[in-house]
Design goal:
By secondary structure, the protein is of the alpha/beta class. The chain folds into five domains: about 180 residues, 2-Layer Sandwich (Beta-Lactamase); about 100 residues, no CATH class; about 180 residues, P-loop containing nucleotide triphosphate hydrolases (Rossmann fold); about 70 residues, Helicase, Ruva Protein, domain 3 (Orthogonal Bundle), CATH 1.10.8; about 35 residues, no CATH class. The chain has a six-stranded mixed β-sheet, with helices on both faces. Helix 13 packs parallel to helix 14. The longest helix has 26 residues. The radius of gyration is 29 Å and the shape is elongated. The two termini are about 35 Å apart. The relative contact order is 0.07.
Length: about 625
């Protein structure tokens, strides 16, 4: 079980030693003359007990199970509040009657400044399971007792109290370890129940995690919640640690696709299936998606989906060149011309493709998205990719035509050369099908592909085969990054209104900082910043103080004589193909692969492939 420490472990000893130092130096406590332990009035105790039950959503079944177990031992079970006051106690049987005279009973406050070193206050301070055996008590009169405490967390990883077991010290380390185990197990079950209840919306997907080879107990409260648009909206701290992050806040509002390499639709199709997820430093965790309150028979078994009803103006805004680009793209798409979308990460290439499909006359046929950046180069991965291509040939077959629908190939330059030729083979068949059909008929298979950089440069670098370029580039559509658009203020306002579901007042100072920002993450970054800013205020106004710190402290360097716009280009000397720049970026993020990938504008899976190609690891 996670976070189980032997009383003689360095973690346990350090916590107790620090407590002794505080008792001696800060609180001026005498080991021989204990201070009186204060007790709440009965009316206040009752109020606090009711409040605790409310925190637990009216359900104390996990605590009741522990209490029944403790009935068979000479130990008492207690539930404390965040101020170390014992609020609930299960020690009324004869064998534990000795606890009450020692103030180990509901209503008494076991805060460290009064009660000295004890497991309840230490568990709350250290936020981990702690055992204080008899000889480790600062007060000599307490050395006949031992106690073990474990913190309780809610769905948002906030402390709501602690569980504790206390009794006569039996000087048996294996017993202490057992008490830590059952307390940690109960605390994990409580947090998992609160988490699942909090994120029980019908359009929310849950993910549970476990380390490879770990026991089932470890995954009880390793949980993640993802909304219908693929945003991570909830995560327990233990899940964050399994994924290589220090705190859960680092992952909140990130796209699940960026973190795990699979979009929300693909994860939904794998509900109930264990998936291996590569994390930083080459480690692997097992993720299992599941769908609460949803009929699983409705979940599709592939990445084929029908897009939601949207409008292209959601991403086009008022930029005249973008409006012209949309009109041109619609006409070319209508006549079956293969489109190649070019733009930086977060510019909305996939959304653009979905909306072209959604606003066309092909609404009754599916939109199929294939992410070429997650293709594994192993035999199993190659076979899976080829199988996906083969499945497209049977898409909406009819007696008169073989193809019907839209295929979106994301980041085709990420494919190995042999798989690029497999795509070429399929596209040749599609070309013939489109050319033989009446262009004005409704059901055609349309192909839209995407890349990050200029196609001819990709060909020169050997990333994109010339033949694949010829079959995908019927027309090139360039999506401008936010920093080059002349309607950025309008887009900021629209996204704020969309997130707030109503009017939002943005101050001039806040607008100034937002407009000066470079937005290297484009729409993804903009949405995250607006979400953060709205949550930091009252949800209706955004002032300078509500903006993320990096925007408030940014220094915008401008050369008035020869201004040079920032440009993300795959052929610069310091880009994602330069091993020195890769290593520098990894070092700057403390080898957090997800963060490094986002800074370089590439996917996590692509980052791992480049690390393997250039043999980059933290040790070399």
């Amino acid at each position: 079980m996670k976070h189980i420490y032997n009383p003689n472990s360095s973690v346990n000893k350090l916590a107790i030693a620090s407590s002794w130092q505080r008792c001696r130096n800060d609180y001026q406590l005498s080991q021989y003359t204990p201070r009186p332990i204060q007790r709440l009035q009965d009316t206040e105790l009752t109020r606090r007990q009711d409040q605790l039950v409310d925190f637990l959503l009216g359900d104390t079944k996990e605590i009741q199970c522990l209490a029944e177990l403790m009935q068979k031992s000479q130990k008492g079970l207690f539930v404390a509040g965040t101020d170390s006051t014992l609020l609930m106690g299960y020690q009324e049987h004869v064998s534990t009657a000795f606890l009450k005279p020692a103030s180990i009973s509901p209503g008494f406050c076991w805060s460290e400044p009064a009660a000295s070193t004890n497991a309840v206050s230490l568990a709350l301070q250290e936020k981990k399971s702690i055992t204080v055996e008899g000889k480790s008590h600062y007060y000599k009169s307490f050395r006949q007792f031992s106690c073990t405490g474990t913190p309780l967390f809610d769905s948002q990883n906030e402390l709501i109290g602690a569980l504790a077991i206390a009794g006569r010290d039996d000087d048996q380390s294996q017993n202490y370890i057992f008490y830590q185990y059952i307390l940690s197990l109960a605390a994990a079950r409580i947090q998992a129940r609160l988490f699942k209840k909090h994120y029980s919306d019908i359009d929310t997907m849950h993910l549970s995690f476990a380390g490879v080879g770990s026991s089932a107990d470890e995954s009880i409260n390793a949980l993640c919640a993802v909304n219908a648009t693929g945003d991570i909206v909830g995560l327990t701290n233990y899940a964050a640690k399994l994924l290589g992050y220090k705190q859960h806040e680092e992952l909140i509002n990130q796209k699940v696709e960026d973190v795990f390499g699979l979009d929300v639709d693909k994860l939904a199709s794998l509900a109930g299936t264990k998936i291996n997820v590569d994390i930083d430093q080459g480690s692997t965790v097992i993720a299992t998606p599941f769908l609460p309150n949803l009929n699983r028979s409705k979940v599709k078994a592939s990445s084929v989906k029908t897009p939601k009803k949207k409008l292209l103006r959601d991403i086009v805004g008022k930029d005249k060149s973008m409006l012209a680009t949309v009109d041109r793209a619609k006409e070319l798409y209508k006549h079956g011309v293969p489109l190649l979308l070019q733009g930086e990460t977060g510019c909305g290439k996939k959304t653009f493709a979905e909306l072209l499909h959604d606003e066309s006359s092909f609404l009754n046929v599916p939109f199929v998205s294939i992410d070429c950046t997650i293709v594994d180069v192993t035999k199993e991965g190659v076979d899976k990719f080829l199988s996906e291509l083969d499945s497209l040939r049977s898409l909406n077959q009819t007696a008169k035509q073989e193809f019907a629908g839209t295929i979106y190939l994301k980041s085709i330059d990420s494919l190995p050369n042999n798989l690029q030729m497999s795509v070429v083979s399929l596209l040749k068949e599609i070309d013939v099908a489109v050319q033989n059909d009446d262009l004005e008929s409704g059901n055609k298979l349309r192909v839209i592909s995407s890349i990050h950089d200029e196609p001819n440069e990709l060909v020169k670098q050997g990333k994109l085969s010339l033949e694949l370029l010829h079959h995908t580039n019927g027309a090139s559509i360039v999506l401008k990054p936010l920093r080059k658009r002349n309607d950025l203020k309008f887009l900021i306002s629209q996204i704020a209104i969309e997130l707030a579901k109503g009017p939002v007042d943005i101050s001039d100072a806040a607008y100034s900082l937002l407009l000066d920002h470079q937005w290297l993450g484009n729409f993804w970054e903009l949405r995250n910043v607006m979400r953060y800013s709205l949550l930091g205020g009252n949800g209706k106004t955004i002032h300078e103080v509500n903006l993320p710190e990096n925007l408030r402290t940014q220094v915008t360097e401008k050369n008035t004589e020869n201004p040079t716009p920032i440009k993300i280009s795959s052929n610069s000397n310091l880009d994602e193909n330069d091993p020195r720049h890769l290593r520098s970026t990894l070092n700057s993020t403390d080898w957090n692969v997800s963060k490094a990938a986002r800074r370089l504008g590439i996917s996590r899976a692509t980052m791992y492939r480049k690390m393997k190609t250039y043999q980059l690891s933290r040790t070399n």
